[in-house]
Amino acid sequence: MAVDKETFMSNYRKDYKWPSFVPLVAKPAQPPVITKPANFYVVKLVEPFCHCDAHRYEPQMGRYKMLAEKERMLHKELECVGKEMTVLAGEVLDHPCDTYDDKMMTIYQADYNKKGLESKQYRKLMAAIDTRVGLPFDGPTITLRDGYRDPTAFRHYAIQRPRIDVCPPVTCRITPQSISDWFTPLIGRSEYQDTISKMGLSLLKSSQQYAEPLPSSRRRYGDMCM
């Protein structure tokens, strides 16, 4: 006995089939090709070519293209000539005949002794160590002593205290500026002095951790040492 395939199908599968043929989002229609009507205020496009006889430039453009191609060929040929001259100069210098100075003199005359240029006497370069005058000063010699400091080397002399433009003595007492401050009762430390000023002092001390050490406070009367 044949059984229908939808006999054992649930109501949910009957009502909501998958895939759903109803689109979830409405698809917009195709936009029109012409979206703007004829507007007389739009600037008219310039024609790419002028049809009058006075503005034709085809002969000049053709001549310019021909000269540009000729210039490109000349540059390429000049590069080839330069490479060949470099190879020939190396072969001439490596040749066993004559001295190196004579060869350099000939190459110098061929390169720089041209029409319109003033001829100069070729002067060969000489290393500073081969000159008869000698080096003007000795070169710096760096040894291990320049980068190493002996930890056992101590200073055996005292540091003299400065006597010119001496800093005022450091004191922790505050002198009132007016007479009324002498008779005003103290109310204790404020919130600023307890929090913000204290934190600022801590930051200042931490920033001065690697600074130059302050002079010693254990000074004795008449002592010249710091």
Question: How would you state the average pLDDT, rounded?
Answer: 72
Q: Write the element-wise H/E pattern from the N-terminal end onward.
A: HHHHH
Apparent shape = flat
Major beta sheet, specifics?
none
- Give the % helix: 25-40%
Low-pLDDT residue intervals, each spanning 5 or more residues? none
Distance between the termini: 119 Å
The radius of gyration over CA amounts to 49 Å
- Structural class call reads mainly alpha
Q: Estimate the strand proportion.
A: under 5%
Number of helices: 5
Strand tally is: 0
Give an overview in words.
The chain has a domain of 78 residues. The chain has five helices and no strands. With 226 residues, it is mainly α. The mean pLDDT is 72. The chain is 34% helix and 0% strand.
Keywords:
mainly alpha, 5 helices, 226 residues
Short description:
With 226 residues, the protein is an all-alpha fold. The protein has helices spanning 11-15, 58-94, 100-112, 180-183, 191-207.
Topology:
Blueprint: H1 11-15, H2 58-94, H3 100-112, H4 180-183, H5 191-207
